[in-house]
Amino acid sequence: MIATSQHFNELSAKRIVLQNTFKTHTQVNGFSYKDWINPPVGSFYEGYKKELDKINNEMAPPLTYQS
User: Environment class of residue 46 by beta-carbon count within 10 Å: exposed (0-12), middle (13-18) or buried (19+)?
Assistant: First the structure.
C-alpha cells in the first residue's frame, strides 16, 4: 500500500507540474479554444492533453463493466 501511495503522490506531482506548464503557456501565448478542441499534430495542446490523459487514466482507470 505504501508503494501505491508513493506512486499516486508521484503522479499528483507530475500533474501539478503539467498544470503549471499549461498555466505558463497560456499566460505567454494566450488560450486557443480552436487548438484545444482540435490540437494540431505536435502542438503544445496535443502533448498536454495526451500526458494529462495518461496520468488521469493511471490515477483513476476507466470503469469496466461485466456483461
Answer: middle
Q: What is the pLDDT of residues 34-64, one digit of tens each?
A: 999 999 999 999 999 999 999 999 998 888 8
Pull the grid cell for residue 39: 490540437
Q: Among the residues of the chain, which ranges form H helices?
A: 2-29, 33-37, 44-59
- Rounded Cα gap, residues 60 and 3, in angstroms: 16
All cell numbers assigned to 40: 494540431
Rounded to the nearest 10 degrees, how much is the dihedral formed by the CA atoms of 19, 23, 29, 35? 40
Query: Pick from 7, 10, 28: which is nearest to 18 by CA?
Result: 10
Quick check: pTM over 0.90?
no
